[in-house]
Amino acid sequence: MKMDSIICITGTPGVGKTSISHKLAEELGGNLVEVNRLAEEKDLFIGEDPVRGYKIVDIPSLCREIMKVVDEDSFNIVEGHLSHYCRICDLVIVLRLHPSVLLRRLEERGYDHRKVKENVEAEALGVCAYEAYQLHDDRVHEIDCTGLSPDEVLDEIISVLEGEKPCTFGGVDFMEWFLGGESF
């Protein structure tokens, strides 16, 4: 792992990005950039989705702001479900979670039914993983966090960073669950 690396940790809301990113920053040191917080602090919104009600982030402006806050002489972790849109990533870690587990987690967080459904479907279809792969190709590594402890996820990330484990994409597949007609 190079000390000037920029690692993006992405995934559907609720998969554990924030927790894992904080643990990784504690373990390895370096600079943690939280994309959602940065977007709020810099007011990087260009509107609101009229149907879904969420704020729409200006991605080019977000990426410019991330470039301003990464420390070129340090290890950087850029965390958030939009982090993979920025092409500065040396490695993209996509955290995945079985849709049935994600469903329970989002309901426990009080997400409304429509938002739960949208996020669970996105996870089942691998939307974040696919988008990351389209932009970063062989620099994307998927981790199925289902049934893993945070320490086990952290160990896998560190193994990839240290070159002990190759980047893998396409091995996490929840389509059977999706096609099985699970109801929301």
From TrEMBL:
Ranges where the record places region LID: 108-118
Catalytic function, reaction form: AMP + ATP = 2 ADP; ATP + H2O = ADP + phosphate + H(+)
Gene3D superfamilies in the cross-refs: P-loop containing nucleotide triphosphate hydrolases
Single GO molecular function: kinase activity
Pfam families: AAA_18
Binding, ATP: 14, 16-19, 109
Listed EC numbers: 2.7.4.3
SUPFAM superfamilies reported in the protein's UniProt record: P-loop containing nucleoside triphosphate hydrolases (SSF52540)
Keywords assigned by UniProt, alphabetized: ATP-binding, Kinase, Nucleotide-binding, Ribosome biogenesis, rRNA processing, Transferase
Assembly, per entry: Interacts with uS11. Not a structural component of 40S pre-ribosomes, but transiently interacts with them by binding to uS11.
Similarity annotation: Belongs to the adenylate kinase family. AK6 subfamily.
The protein's role, per its UniProt record: Broad-specificity nucleoside monophosphate (NMP) kinase that catalyzes the reversible transfer of the terminal phosphate group between nucleoside triphosphates and monophosphates. Has also ATPase activity. Involved in the late maturation steps of the 30S ribosomal particles, specifically 16S rRNA maturation. While NMP activity is not required for ribosome maturation, ATPase activity is. Associates transiently with small ribosomal subunit protein uS11. ATP hydrolysis breaks the interaction with uS11.
Family annotation (HAMAP family): Adenylate_kinase_AK6
UniProt-recorded name of the protein: Putative adenylate kinase
Organism: Methanothermobacter tenebrarum
